[in-house]
Model the fold of this input.
Amino acid sequence: MLEKLNLDQELDKKTFHDAFSKLQFDIGVLQRKVVDLGIPVIIIFEGWEAAGKGTAIGSLVRRIDPRGFKVHHTKAPTEEEALRPFLWRFWRDLPGRGEIGIFDRSWYGKVLVERVDKLAPKKEWRRAYAEINEFERLLADDGALLIKFWLHISKKEQKSRFKHFLKDPFRGWKITKTDWKHHKEYDKFYEAAEDMFAKTDAPHAPWTAVESHDKRVSTLKIMRAVVAAIQNAVKRKEKAAAKAQAAAPAPTAESTPPASKPTLLSRIDLNKTLTKEEYAARLDDLQDRIVDYEYRLYEKRLPVVIVYEGWDAGGKGGNIKRITEKLDPRGYDVTPIAAPQGAERTHHYLWRFWNHLPKAGHIAIFDRSWYGRVMVERIEGFCREDEWKRAFDEIVEFERQLANFGTIVIKFWIHISQEEQLRRFKERESIEFKRWKLTDEDWRNREKWPQYDRAVSELIEKTSMPFAPWTVVEGNCKYWARIKALETVCNAIKSKL
Amino acid sequence: MLEKLNLDQELDKKTFHDAFSKLQFDIGVLQRKVVDLGIPVIIIFEGWEAAGKGTAIGSLVRRIDPRGFKVHHTKAPTEEEALRPFLWRFWRDLPGRGEIGIFDRSWYGKVLVERVDKLAPKKEWRRAYAEINEFERLLADDGALLIKFWLHISKKEQKSRFKHFLKDPFRGWKITKTDWKHHKEYDKFYEAAEDMFAKTDAPHAPWTAVESHDKRVSTLKIMRAVVAAIQNAVKRKEKAAAKAQAAAPAPTAESTPPASKPTLLSRIDLNKTLTKEEYAARLDDLQDRIVDYEYRLYEKRLPVVIVYEGWDAGGKGGNIKRITEKLDPRGYDVTPIAAPQGAERTHHYLWRFWNHLPKAGHIAIFDRSWYGRVMVERIEGFCREDEWKRAFDEIVEFERQLANFGTIVIKFWIHISQEEQLRRFKERESIEFKRWKLTDEDWRNREKWPQYDRAVSELIEKTSMPFAPWTVVEGNCKYWARIKALETVCNAIKSKL
Done:
């Protein structure tokens, strides 16, 4: 891609200013549209050191309302960041709907500097291509606009700029030893960049290479590309909105009757039980084992993610308590998931879960999870059909990314029968200190048992993977359920240690 | 405090278990009350290395619903953390209403290890006492329950535990060189701890020293103290709630007529103007100056906080834009403040602003701010009278803490006349691309002009401090306002460089 660029282009001051002022006006108006239409805009600046990324970003944002964008300066990962999958910190910085996020260097560091300087093993940066592509596709599917720039200068030009900077008392400190080292490796970076373009250029996230010898040429090309990209995105979104209003119905609760053939859940044998004595005898042993594992996970810096899903009154809370009871509380976290709030609502539905990923060496337990997308959000019509259908793949990719990082992923569906649920609801009604546990929503959900039955059976079939298997826990007998969950966790951890 | 402890106490197994099981039951019930009543509970564990903090926390939480608490393990500050005031990271980890936050070591590190090991200069750790006391008082005033433990063992006991640990293959790694160094400095730490108790023991945040030679004695004392403290807090809260229901009216919008004497704002001369030519001539120069300062702030690692408040349609947005226009966007952040959402609502009102503090060397611009507490929240009755009255002091303390850290704090009130506001509202109505800027709320706020006039005048008088002065900007002429704000920012920065 780069060899085709003509780096000798120049532009006179007047031509530049006339064109640029018009574009600045356009972008001010467009930013407002971005807010109104709720489009998340992600603009990435990659390129050679001293190619002028800072200046380019400065010109780009000059006339944008400063409340509407954020610039993220990507440096080497901090300790906090290094203990999570490499996309974690970029997820945290993603713009919400209607916001513009500008990345001065980005997730592409993994396949550029980390590759060339051998900071990441080959296996890791090669796999990063897949994860980056999944990441960008998922964002684009969610309505995000992705704009990616490579600011290009020749090796000779870079050398002359470095030398020029060194003479400037205010900017001299910016050129480091590493920069000189990278300058010498120009050809290797060139090759890596070309490989990167080939592997990550996509219609929904195209690369634009920018001739950056002349500042005016470069600034104008960037501005034009941004304006055009936003204009297109705005048009697409307005068209889609008009079409949706005209024809398609708004998302609604699922009304289709449940399939007639028996579902996966309906085939579960719920007659498994343990006596109190059997339970007590095994509980202690398993809890001691998991305490032991907690230390060893920490030593080996292995993260663990445990997902709890299940029927209301299935016994999730008591089950989780038995997992954590003897653990060192500094080593685990329990995150209860309720309806999304605030920033959670203006971001991709996976965003808040990325925010709660465990540090390497820690255990994160989710009491309900990202599977809400294909359960309650599907059934209640909180998202569109194409959205929840797409979610199966997105979730598998998400969990594969966790597993790639070394995470042990364990997922439970705590299963009880309809009769048992009714019995427990009634018990809760009658016992004063349990009454808070039962809400009107629980009764409403109960009425939708067949829909949940089908949705859960489907998600288990579609998202059970060797690297993140589901375990259906027979929950009519709480003793059985607790022992089974503990045993599953112990075995999953053991097999990775 | 420590010399009075009898470290030779012991407890037999049965006595311990009987008492402890009962307390575990109690704490389960109390945790529910904490949720219902929305009490934030903060429990701090300080004490000697190897005194058993981990074990104590483990026993404490064993029967608490794991979704209801979080344990925070405090280590040396990361780079991210070191670039902010020392309380920043603890603010981020504060529990919300109804949550329990347990700190394994805490903000007291500043006056213990940082003092003894001379990691903080004397001036800094001495000042930390005041900041810690302000912090804890502010949390207590907001309804938080604070429980602080010091786990005490003798020097001899510590040595024997270290030696014992070293023999254990799983725990040997826990004893580091630093631990041995600190062991040798036992007497210095002892003295620092006594000083800390003397300076930070308060009725709303008392210290409990715990004899920790015998695990049962220690565990039981901690459990008893926590149960008693929560019981008291629950009683107080229930009583207050009952009283509030019986007598005091719920918070309401301020109805008191404005004072008859002229307010501070009403004495502002709004006739100041600049011509377009004067404006253009000075704008360039000031913007160049601020770009230059941005580099120097970064070099010297000085943080800047700029607060924008002002009448609707006062021109805050355009003013901010002129400040940032030429700045390197990697060096500043603009944070627009709207009504609190999600976690912002379940925390102290200052919490979200702590979250957005600039890194040292960066500029943070707030478009509206914590002053909402003593403006809109006061006027609309979103908080009680005692709450907003207390806020003046809390805000002064907050800004003093920023200034102590080296932050340059600049605060603007953009002032326009009622007539000018009306003119601008009408203009916005008539120009299509400006219409989005005008909402029904703007018209409603306009009706409360006298209340705002009085509230703003009062807050400016009460919170203008040498370390965080207010500047009232005459805003009828936008040119004048922009130049004045830019000049104020430049001069404030210059005087600190």
